[in-house]
């Protein structure tokens, strides 16, 4: 079955040496952990795991407030305890306009602020919005809400949900994370990230398993709304509150954003499943696939995002886009899945900047007017951090084998032996690079075997060639620093190394009387043995002599 597919690939412009047997897996397993030696290039913050108290969710009683010139149509929640994080919820049709304000420390109510509906959409399971974005009101004990449709009050149809996110042992420890650009070789590094365990995610709220898309093509920038005056010690609580609202109140089973950035530049891991991987989140209805959602924590309607927030956002965008070889200065075409608050119906192809604002695809004000005005700054900084994509050696190999490897799926990351690796969505593909060996692809059944052995951390070391056709035309092989893996449809893929490989080569490799290997080396009395199709080789470890048994 190898030859027909090889001919097809040659006909479509792929060299015969890149042909893939039809027996091979067609994609990277959705939740496969990285092989031994591979790391996901997200540096965790220097914090222990947090011990957190459970969040508390309540529906507040709404009453008619004391009359005032600007309280018409409003209802008010008054609590003896701080309300912390609040959101307006409803059943039935969503109001056209929802506004909220809270009593400030000055004793006065703040200005009325529009609050957008959340993008309540999980791909393939669409539903109408049932609530607004959550708003952090900190220690305020009084919140007023009002809602209208066609200019008429409908506040009687809404409720106010409050979430006390509790406390964690890390809240007082969390400060702005250092934001440092990546090295000159390979993709930019991520800034240090406060992991879910470190900010105190209650994983019992998780009801959806992580879902993956073949790749990420663009970054979506959001703001979370609410106060801009929170402290660094409150940031983790805000994240826990948003997580509880999204996972429990909205029924998403997880937080909607892939990652969040506070006003100090601290980065918080959002959606579970791995920041290096192409996780489908729930942050931009209709455009959750192939996008990476960054939530800037604050309301940037009229206040500009702080410089630290913009820098960390650009660092994250550069890490994700550079590591997947996307040009931050280019445009990308994405296809809407519709539903939610999407501006575009299902099936509509939309051209967007590779780094775009949420309002570009959704019926929302997010990320606020000043947030939108900051988008050119984010794009230009991201582009500068990514640098010259043509200089990325793994990218060059990917472009040469794109029809086989498909799209980059896991961000370029460090691996064993001072090397780097990128994983791809097609035929279990990966490309490894080091300054000593260059960039070479491993994929298909050979790739599965290489991963099982420990990939770059295995005894084989790094690849020294792409996959090649064997001279006899029956199989495929890759050469590595300390051996080779040979594959045939009848024997599978097995490593051959050391003196056994040397002796097999002297005999003529697969064209010898032994044929292909059909198992790995195994210990026997006094040495090692490896079985082949028509015999075996035995290494005497005391003498170094390899005997042929056929």
TrEMBL record:
Signal peptide: 1-18
Family annotation (InterPro entries): Amidase/PGRP_sf, Amidase_domain, LGFP, PGRP, PGRP_domain_met/bac
UniProt keyword Transferase present: no
GO molecular function: N-acetylmuramoyl-L-alanine amidase activity
CDD domains listed in its UniProt record: PGRP
SMART domains in alphabetical order: Ami_2 (SM00644), PGRP (SM00701)
EC class of the enzyme, as a word: hydrolase
Coiled coil: none
Superkingdom classification of source: Bacteria
Biased composition (Low complexity): 44-55
Domain (Peptidoglycan recognition protein family) ranges: 191-339
Domain spans labelled N-acetylmuramoyl-L-alanine amidase: 207-368
Region (Disordered): 24-80
Assigned keywords, A-Z: Hydrolase, Signal
EC number: 3.5.1.28
Hydrolase as UniProt keyword: yes
Family from the record: Belongs to the N-acetylmuramoyl-L-alanine amidase 2 family.
Name of the featured protein: N-acetylmuramoyl-L-alanine amidase
Species this chain originates from: Actinomycetospora rhizophila
């Amino acid at each position: 079955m190898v030859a027909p597919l090889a001919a097809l690939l040659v006909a479509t412009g792929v060299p015969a040496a890149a042909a893939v047997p039809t027996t091979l897996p067609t994609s990277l397993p959705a939740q496969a952990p990285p092989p031994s030696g591979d790391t996901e290039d997200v540096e965790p913050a220097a914090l222990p795991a947090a011990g957190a108290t459970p969040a508390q969710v309540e529906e507040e009683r709404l009453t008619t407030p004391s009359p005032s010139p600007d309280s018409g149509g409003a209802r008010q929640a008054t609590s003896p305890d701080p309300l912390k994080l609040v959101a307006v919820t409803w059943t039935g049709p969503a109001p056209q306009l929802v506004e909220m304000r809270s009593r400030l420390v000055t004793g006065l109510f703040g200005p009325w602020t529009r609050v957008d509906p959340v993008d309540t959409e999980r791909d393939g399971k669409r539903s109408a919005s049932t609530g607004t974005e959550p708003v952090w009101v900190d220690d305020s004990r009084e919140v007023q809400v009002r809602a209208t449709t066609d200019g008429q009050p409908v506040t009687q149809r809404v409720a106010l949900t409050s979430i006390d996110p509790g406390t964690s042992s890390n809240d007082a420890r969390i400060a702005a994370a250092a934001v440092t650009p990546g090295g000159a070789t390979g993709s930019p590094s991520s800034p240090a990230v406060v992991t879910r365990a470190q900010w105190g995610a209650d994983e019992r709220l998780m009801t959806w398993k992580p879902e993956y898309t073949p790749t990420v093509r663009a970054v979506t920038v959001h703001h979370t709304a609410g106060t801009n005056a929170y402290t660094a010690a409150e940031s983790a609580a805000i994240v826990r509150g948003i997580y509880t609202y999204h996972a429990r109140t909205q029924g998403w089973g997880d937080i909607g954003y892939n990652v969040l950035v506070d006003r100090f530049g601290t980065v918080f891991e959002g959606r579970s499943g791995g920041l290096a991987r192409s996780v489908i989140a729930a942050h931009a209805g209709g455009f959750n696939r192939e996008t990476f959602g960054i939530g800037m924590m604050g309301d940037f309607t009229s206040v500009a995002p702080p410089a630290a927030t913009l820098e960390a956002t650009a660092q994250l965008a550069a890490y994700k886009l550079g590591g997947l070889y996307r040009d931050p200065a280019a445009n990308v075409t994405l296809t809407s899945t519709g539903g939610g608050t999407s501006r575009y119906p299902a099936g509509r192809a939309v051209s967007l900047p590779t780094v775009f604002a949420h309002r570009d695809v959704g019926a929302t004000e997010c990320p606020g007017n000043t947030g939108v005005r900051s988008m050119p700054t984010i794009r230009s900084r991201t582009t500068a951090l990514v640098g010259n994509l043509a200089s990325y050696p793994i990218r060059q190999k990917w472009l040469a084998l794109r029809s086989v490897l498909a799209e980059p799926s896991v961000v370029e990351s460090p691996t064993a032996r001072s090397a780097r690796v990128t994983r791809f969505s097609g035929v279990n593909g990966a490309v490894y690079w080091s300054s000593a060996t260059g960039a070479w692809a491993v994929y298909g059944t050979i790739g599965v075997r290489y991963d099982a052995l420990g990939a770059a951390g295995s005894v084989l070391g790094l690849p020294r060639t792409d996959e090649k056709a064997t001279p006899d035309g029956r199989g495929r092989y890759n050469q590595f620093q300390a051996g080779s893996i040979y594959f045939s449809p009848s024997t599978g893929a097995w490593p051959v190394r050391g003196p056994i490989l040397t002796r097999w080569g002297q005999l003529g490799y697969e064209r010898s009387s032994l044929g292909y290997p059909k198992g790995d080396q195994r210990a026997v009395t006094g040495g090692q043995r490896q079985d082949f199709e028509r015999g075996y080789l035995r290494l005497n470890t005391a003498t170094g002599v390899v005997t042929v048994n056929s």
